[in-house]
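Fresh eyes needed here. Kindly weigh in on this sequence plus structure tokens:
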Amino acid sequence: MALYLFVQGKSWTVERRHELVGGDARPEKVEASGLFLFFTAADGEIRRSEIAADFPEEPAARLLESVWRFAEVMRVADLGEMTSRGEIVMPRMRDVVREFARAFRLHCPNCGGGRVLRTWFKLQHRCAKCGLRLDRGEADDYFLGGMFFNIVLAEIIFALVLLVVVIVMWPNVPWAGVEYSLIVAMIAAPIVLYPVSRLMWLALDLLLRPPDEAEMAWHASEEE
């Protein structure tokens, strides 16, 4: 029966099996075998740790984690493509405020580094400070969510401006002027907010799927 462990932002499949100690396949050495736990991650990393014969069949997560920490790395993670994806987490409010504030200032949501804009309508490929690729390795359709944020932000600003104007100028609201002004604002807002919305989408993704060590190593693996 396969077991599962989540540690350091990665999910591991845990299997128990016998294996020859030292990998010697000669028949006279068959008796030199041991019982091992094998930990396999989605990015290809494999770890192995020898266990006692009376090791529990269904060990607690804390026990599995302690075995994992001292396990021998048999195969390192494959960093040729970004496959590191941990479980979705519930972010803390202070993290939400911090990362969205960074995005609103047009800084990298991950580290706060600046200069993430190449042009107003195009982001840099990666953050110069932390090395994060701003599309997280999903260049084809990653920023579709940013388009959603763009529309939502424009509509929120439209509603707030309309509400303030009506309250301040009531009952003598110049409806014709308000109508024309808001039409111009609705056209301009998506353009003005374009880079903000893309970075806010990145911030949301980083909050829900925080980058782990394997992902950051993948980002850093790209040659300049």
Q: What stands out?
A: The helical segments are 61-69, 93-104, 144-169, 175-192, 194-208, 213-220. Residues 3-75 form one domain. The chain has six helices and seven strands. The longest helix spans residues 144-169.
